[in-house]
Amino acid sequence: MPYYKRIRELREDHDLTQKEVASYLNMKQPQYFRYENGNRDIPSDVLISLAKLYKVSVDYILELKDNTN
User: Fold this and answer.
1) Which residues, 6+ apart, have CB-to-CB distance to 19 below 8 Å?
2) Whole-model pTM above 0.85?
């Protein structure tokens, strides 16, 4: 699965809304929506912030690893 689907699954698994994640990332919900739907590439700083939020590795989000550690 593409990485943008993984960030959606992580968000849903943590019972968060797009608006809540966008707020955590200091951006508006439509901008986050574009990342989650694959319309825009995720900048490295946002990717790192998402990994910290979900307590997973960046490699997991990018699908370089199958486990969260």
Assistant:
1) 29
2) yes
